[in-house]
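Data card: per-record layout.
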Amino acid sequence: MQPLVALPDAARMAIRGVLTDIDDTFSTEGRITAVAYAAMERLHQAGLLVIPVTGRPAGWCDHIARMWPVDAVVGENGALYMLHDEQSRVLRKRYAESDPDRFATRERTAGIAARILRAVPGCALASDQPYRDTDLAIDYCEDVAPLPPEAVDRIAALMRAEGMTSKVSSIHVNGWFGAHDKLTMTRTLLWEAFTIDLDAERARFAFVGDSPNDASMFEFFPISIGVANVRRFTGRLEMAPKYVTERECGAGFAELADFLLAGR
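The structure for this 264-residue chain is written out next.
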């Protein structure tokens, strides 16, 4: 990982959008700081597309799309996107899976969750699980005492044994059925909502994250950035970001915003 300042000026000035994880990237110790939120607003006011790409639930995405200074949001690790049409005042939703598939998945995940909770002492169903439309989130350090890496790996392995895709965030282990992930739904969103071919335009988007569930985004984007706390996952990342901020969490996000907006 190179320091953020190593990003060439020409690449920096060509950026048209910022894609960001939320937990421990935009947030700090579970809170959105005024500094981070103001940084997001400045990016949006400067005309850049701002899109959170998160593992958080559909219920949160409804609020984010309506209330935050963003253009859209991708949620549940790529299971859906939402955007609020300001002219029609309509919230648009798009899911990776059909309604019948999502309803069937809910029945399956309840049983899987119960088995994981029995098998891994100390973990818990994530407090935001009731607001999820598709995936299963097991808490390993948000509202429970932090579990060791072996326990986190055990949760992920149990999900995979059930046929789920599993990814580790900075607070949860998420599992879901289907081939979607953060990258596939981001690609769908940008094409359907903004007529942007992400494969052709990926050099004009910056992605910032902090944990293993961001690996597909770190790999895909030439301008992928980790806030400094990404180093906590050294050795556990399938793909590391190309650049890294000096500061952690929301302060690192604000550092990135200042860097991108300098000279604009």
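Known properties of this structure: The mean pLDDT is 95. The domain at 2-96+180-261 is CATH 3.40.50.1000 (Rossmann fold).

See the next section for split statistics.
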